[in-house]
Every structure is written in C-alpha cells, then in structure tokens.
Amino acid sequence: MSIDMEQFKITFVEESLEGLDTMESVLLDMHPGEADAEAIDNIFRAAHSIKGGAATFGLGDIANFTHVVETLLDEVRNGDRDITQEAIVLFLSSVDCIREMLSADQNDEAIDQGRIEEVKAGLDKMLGSEQESEPASTENNETVSDIPSNQENGWRVIFKPFPGMLRTGNDVVRMFRELAELGEFNAAVNADSLPPLIDMDPEEAYLNWQITLRGEIDKAQISEIFEWVEDDCELEILPLADGNAETVATGVTNNDSTEKNQPVDLQVANPPPERRAAEDRRQEGDRRQPARKASPPESSSIRVGIDKIDDLINMVGELVITQSMLGQLGGDFDMSRVERLNDGLSELERNTRELQESVMRIRMLPISFAFNRFPRMVHDLSAKLDKKIELTMSGEQTELDKTVMEKIGDPLVHLVRNSIDHGIETPEARKAAGKPETGVVNLNAYHQGGNIIIEITDDGAGLNHEKILAKAIERGLVGANEELPEEKVYELLFEPGFSTADVVSDVSGRGVGMDVVKRNIMALGGGVDVKSVPGEGSTFTIRLPLTLAILDGQLVRVGDNTYIIPLVSIVESLLVDQKNVNEIAGKAEVYQLRSDYLPIIRLYEVFDVEPDRRSLDDGLLVVVEGDGKKGGLLVDELLGQQQVVIKSLETNFRRVEGLSGATILGDGTVALIVDVAGVVRLSRDDGRGSNEQIVAA
Q1: Phi, psi of 645 (to 5 degrees)
Q2: What are the pLDDT digits (tens) for 598-649?
Q3: Is 444:367 a contact under the CB 8 Å cutoff?
Q4: Do 458 and 424 form a contact (C-beta atoms < 8 A)?
C-alpha cells in the first residue's frame, strides 16, 4: 500500500518552522561562553527533528544542511565545543537558510544557493569537516569508523524494525538501496512474525533482516543510513571477523525454519532505470518535478487549545438539548405551549450566540505570533546600523483573529524598522543628549472595546515637525503659508513617496512603505495615529478590529433596500435641520455640525436606488468617519443594530466600490455592508450616481 506523504508534509513544515522559531529565540538570548545546557538541548532537539523529517520527505538538501548544524550543537552539548559569538551568528544564519529552503520547497520558488553554500562552508569550517574526512585525522573521533575495516572487509547488520516504523515514512527498500551502493550487498529476511493475510495491517512492519555488506566500508557510513530510524528499530552492526557471517548469506538464523528465512533478491543494486530516476528525484528533493504544492504554512491550519475545543463541544451539546426540546413541542403543538416555545427560542438564541463566540475564539491567537519575529530583526538591524537597541514587549497574550494577524505582519515590520532607523539615535548622539547609549523600542498590545490596539514606541529623537512640513511644502502637499495642527503634519508621513531621510539606505528612506502601511491597515477596517515629542520619542498606534468575520452594524433603509453601516464608523445620528444645510458652487451640499462642515452624501445617489424622499427636510443623517474624513449619510430610516456575518462580494460576485461585503438577514434577504471610507471617497470624487454596477439587494 503506497502512502501519500504530501498529507503529512504540511504538518512537518509547520512543526519545522516552529522549531526554527524556538532555535532563533534561544540563540538570541544566548551569550558567548554562557550556554545553558537546557537551552542547547532545546535547539539540538529542534535541529534533529527537522533533519529527520526532511530526510523522510526526500528533502536531501535540507537534511544534509541541518545535519552539520546538529553535529556542531551536539559538540556544544557534550562540552567539546564552546559557544562563541561567531557560532551564535552562524547558527542564526543557518536558521535563515533552513527557513528559506522550506519556503522554497513549499512555494516552488528559487533559493539563494550562493548564500546557502556560503553559510554551509562556514559550518564546515567550524566543524573542520575537510580535515576530519581524511583518514589521518580520524583518531579519537567516534563519528568515523571506530572499528576499522578488518581482514574480512565487511560488516554484518542485524536490522529489526519496530512495528510502527513504516508509519514514520521510512522506506526499507530505499535504505537497502543506499547500503548496496557502499559494497557487495546480501540480505536474508525473517518472516516469523508475519500474520495471516486477513490480519495484516499494511502500515505495520512484520519483517526483520540479517545483512552482509562486503567491501572497504566505514561503520559510520552504515550508521548514517540507519540514522533516521535509530529510535524505531533494533540495530546491530558487527564486523564480519566476529563469525557467523556466512550464515547470513545462506539465510540460516537462530531458528530452524528455512521456509520463512530465505535469501531475498531485493534487486537493490540494479533497479529499473525509470524507478531509480523517480527515486533519485524524490531523494534529492527535485522541486522541478510536478507535485502538489501546499498552501503557505501560516494559512493552512491553526493550533487550538483543548479548553477552546471543550467549550465548543459543551455548546454543541446545549444546542442539541434545545433542539430536542423544540422538536417535542412541535409534535403536538397547541396554544397552551406558546410560553414554552418562547422559552425554547430564547434558549436557542442564547446557545447560538455562545456557540458563535466559541467558534470565533478558535480563530483567536495571541499576538505573540506576530511579535516573535522582531527580536531577530532588532538584533540584526542594530548590528547593521551600529546602534544599541533593546526590544521590550508587553501584552503578547492579547488575542487577535488569525486573518487579521497575518495581514498586519508587514505593516508592523515597516513601523519597527522605521523606529530603529529614523527614531533611535546612535550611541554617541544619545550620550551627547544625556540619554543612555541603549535605545528602547517597545511593542505593546491590548484590547479596547471591540478593537485591539498595537503601540510601537521608541525613546529616540522624535519626529521633526519643521522638517516634515518643509518637505511637504517642497512637494506641494501644503501651501507655503498654510498652518496645520500637529496631527495633520504627522499624517503627511503616510502620503505616497513621502520621506524626510537625507540618505537613502536599504533599511528605509525611499519614501516607499508608509502609505502602504496605512492603506493595509485601513483595508482591515482599522486606523493608525502618530504622537511624538522631540527629543523624547514617538508612538505609532494601530487600531484594528478583533475579527474580520463578524461586525456590529447599524441597519439602515434607503427606499426598499437595507444597508449595514459598521458601528465603529458611526459618530452620531441626527435629524436634518434645514438651516444648517449649505450649498457650495450650486452642487455640493454640506451640513454644519457644531464647528464642523460635513459633506452630505445621499446614499440613494451613490447606490442608484429610489428613496422614500429626496428632500433634506426632516431627513435622517448618519454621521460617519472613514479614512480620517467625516461625512453625513442621508438615509430614509434607522433600523435595529445587530451582529452580522460578513460574506465577501469579491469572492461570490465581484469587487464593488463603496461596499465591503454582504450578509444574510434573519428573514433571508441580503443586506449590503457599506464601506464607509469608500463611500466618502466616492463622494469626494464626485462619484454620485455613477456606480451603476451596484445591484440593489
């Protein structure tokens, strides 16, 4: 029975990436000459698991690379090698290389082979592999043949797999084929444990073998072939000089059965060419062969705590009980049971709400998953920029929807890089300013209402208000004599192509990114604010919804159509007072609300539907804010508020400007969810009445 290993490969990659994260975290906390035994054990186990798994799935390049890393770590673990700064840097580079190779295999991408070979050469140099490969330098090294080839010139191997060995993906024929490449190969199989055919499990190992291998062969070469199964079998490797060698060749073992213990021609030495070619491709991890490529690991699965699963199971149980009760009521229903029916429906509503909350909790992950990438990044950038920087993190256990977390990663990276490059000064400059030489970058996350707040704070030089304004005037973004409040000046940082850097570097300063940061955050329904004190530092605050799957909305009616406006975008609702309405140039209408003038956006014009009334007299205005701009949406009626499940229009229909999705209401009708920022933008672009692609629900 052939086993499709691709079904296990995704899990292997996910666990390998977690192992690499562990290695990176431990290495970043490690100091030269102060290696903690438990820490070394942790990263050794991670490397060992990656190596074994890579070999199982035919990723020979990764297995060979990781084998050298594991060997070095084993020497450190055994006290034969000191941990130095050079070793820490090299191990960190190795983590990067393994991660790149895993990603390349998953996504069918090219790798930077030169970089990987450079790191591999550094590992080999540290290990001294070139010298160790020579016979003269093998003394006192147990990894090379500790029992030299003897006068019989060969070895006797007793190989007894444990029953579950095949389930790990190991292939006996493949191992024997590699043994046959070392020398003259003969094997005898012992089938005493083979059950009747009807009782056989095709994934269980029932056979064991005695093998003779003749030739000038080091024991280490044989051990390396069995290295991947060393914990899943009984294995003895003995020199032929110990006797009993010939019994292997003739199939005679400790029992007298000759029927079950016959020499077996495994056709190892000369398999069919097409089979050997296919095996070679698999063994070498040839990414050019057609294969199913898994989705990127971060989006393929989610790890859930058992407590969340237990809550979900309990909620389903409650739902089943309620359903059973309602089913009994419906059997012989009469008006005397109305009260019990209402109680049952209330119970059903409560159970459904709790079930929904339990399901949503499954998608929630601690934001530490996003924060964990930054210690390494700060470590590398501080060395590159010759700065001393300490990274502190708080609120790592604050939970966020997995989808939101995946999409916020890149904006966070850009903001942290900016804090390091532009915010934190050099040690000399900090010392001259009376500050500690080491700058601090802090990442903090916490819940606030239905949002998560992420703060990136540094104690650097702060933002240069005058320099930003001068650059904006130079680019024509503001007038030469125009006065802007501080928060408006800082908003200029998010204009496309805006940069105040005097020198362009590969870290930042090209004016590419901050506008993308804001656009990505806004696309998630969030926002970003900036505060800064010259000489003391800056804080970038990101506000995001906890989830993208469900939102709290205000239902409004325009004519015969129902729309949903996200509650987080609504400032207030009011009746239109005609005396506060003004027209600009006979076209645009604005409403004076206290000290603000809001553009009036007639939703029936934006969505091309027929309203109850077109006059503003006694009309309802919903004041909303999106993309930093306010506006008043004219609607016919305010309906109720409720949580709605968002359905993607782009997936099920097509992208529609001014709408972020749709949902199905309790009566089965479809309601469109208003993209407030998009509607405000449409109105500013004079897009009223031109959106004919929108189909009324």
Answers
A1: -90, 125
A2: 888 988 888 888 988 888 887 899 999 876 678 899 999 999 888 888 887 7
A3: no
A4: yes
Interior/surface letters 288-309, b for 16+ CB within 10 angstroms, e for the rest: eeeeeebeebeeeeeeeeeeee
Q: Which of 443, 304, 301 is nearest to 365 (CA)?
A: 304
Q: Give the pLDDT band of residue 688 (cuts 50, 70, 90).
A: very low
Find all residues with CB under 8 Å of 458, minimum gap 6, and list them: 419, 420, 423, 424, 439, 440, 441, 442, 537, 538
Tally the C-alpha atoms within 13 A of residue 624's C-alpha that lie toward its C-beta.
29
CB 68 within 8 A of CB 123: yes
CA distance 305 to 327: 33
- What's the CA gap between 49 and 68, in Å, rounded? 13
How many angstroms separate the Cα of 528 from the Cα of each of 411, 491, 664? Answer: 11, 9, 31
Of the candidates 308, 400, 402, 397, the residue with the CA atom closest to the CA atom of residue 354: 308
C-beta separation of 192 from 257 below 8 A: yes
Token readout for 468 is 């930003």
Q: Write the pLDDT tens digit of every residue in 338-383.
A: 888 888 888 888 888 888 778 877 878 888 888 888 888 898 888 8
Taking the complete model, does pTM exceed 0.85, yes or no? no
Q: Dihedral of CA 143/148/153/155: which sign?
A: negative
Q: Is 265 helix (H, G, I), strand (E, B) or coil?
A: coil
What whole-number distance in Å separates Cα of residue 64 and Cα of residue 224?
A: 11
d(Cα 602, Cα 589) in Å, to the nearest integer? Answer: 10
CA gap 303, 365 in Å, rounded:
9
Residue listed under structure tokens 């390396």: 224
Q: CB-based burial of residue 88 (10 Å sphere; 0-12 exposed, 13-18 middle, 19+ buried)?
A: middle
Q: Which CATH class is domain 366-545?
A: alpha beta
Question: HEC profile for 645-690?
Answer: ECECHHHHCCCCCCEEEEEECCCCCEEEEECHHHHHHHHHCCCCCC
Q: Topology of domain 154-284, per CATH?
A: Replication Protein E1; Chain: A, (3.40.1310)
Q: Please give the helix or strand (H or E) that residue 525 lies within, else none.
A: none
Q: How far is CA 96 from CA 87, 183, 237, 380, 417, in A?
A: 14, 37, 37, 12, 19
Report the alpha-carbon angle 396-400-405, nearest 5: 95
Domain 6-135: give its CATH superfamily. Answer: HPT domain (1.20.120.160)
Helices (H) and strands (E) in the chain, counts: 23, 23
The CATH code for residues 550-684 is 2.40.50.180
pLDDT band at 510 (very low <50, low <70, confident <90, very high): very low
